[in-house]
Amino acid sequence: MSDAAERNWRSATDETPLVRGLLILAAVAGMALLVAAPLLTVFVEALAKGWFAALKSLGNPDALSAIRLTLMIAALSVPLNAVFGIAAAWFITRFEFRGKAFLITLIDLPFSVSPVVAGLCIVLMFGANSAIGGWLVAQGYPIVFALPGIVLATMFVTFPFVARELIPVMIEQGCQEEEAALTLGASGWRVFTTVTLPKIRWALLYGVLLCNARAMGEFGAVAVVSGKIRGQTATMPITIEMLYNEYLSVAAFSLAGLLTALALVTLLLKTVLELRHADEIAATHRH
Amino acid sequence: MDIDIQEISKLFGTTAALHPVSLAIPSGALVALLGPSGSGKTTLLRILGGLEFPTSGRVLFDGQDATDIRVQDRRAGFVFQSYALFRHMTVFENIAYGLRARPRAERPPKLEIARRVARLLELIQLPEIGARYPSQLSGGQRQRVALARALAIEPRMLLLDEPFGALDAKVRKELRQGLRDIHDATGLTTVFVTHDQEEAMELADMVVVMSMGRIEQIGRPSDIRARPASSFVREFITA
Question: Does the domain made of A50-282 have the CATH classification 1.10.3720.10?
Answer without folding.
Answer: yes
